[in-house]
Design a protein that fits this description.
single chain; 89 residues; mainly alpha; Single alpha-helices involved in coiled-coils or other helix-helix interfaces; 2 helices; 55% helix; elongated; mitochondrion inner membrane; mitochondrion; electron transport
């Protein structure tokens, strides 16, 4: 592709013309898929984690404590009472 055709159609144009269809194209030289991952992405993940920590942690802790209480109570109720079997032959 000549330099004059790049200036004529714009940098991202690949010169594809299709009638009665809308076609969007982007040059491989125009975009960077990992641009801003380190500078913007990781701080954003840390910020969102801090913001939603209590929203997730409190119900999870309550669920764990209630499950633990239930399993301990079930184990206590499943034990046999030795006094019930004293008179067995």
């Amino acid at each position: 592709m000549r330099l004059s055709s790049i200036y004529k159609h714009g940098f991202g144009s690949l010169g594809v013309t299709v009638d009665k269809q809308i076609v969007y194209t982007m040059s491989a030289m125009e975009h960077n898929p990992i641009k801003g991952v380190v500078s913007k992405g990781f701080p954003n993940v840390i910020r969102r984690t801090k913001e939603s920590f209590l929203v997730v942690a409190i119900p999870a802790l309550l669920c764990y404590l209630s499950y633990d209480w239930g399993t301990k109570l079930q184990a206590k109720l499943d034990r046999k009472d030795p006094k019930m079997y004293e008179n067995d032959v």
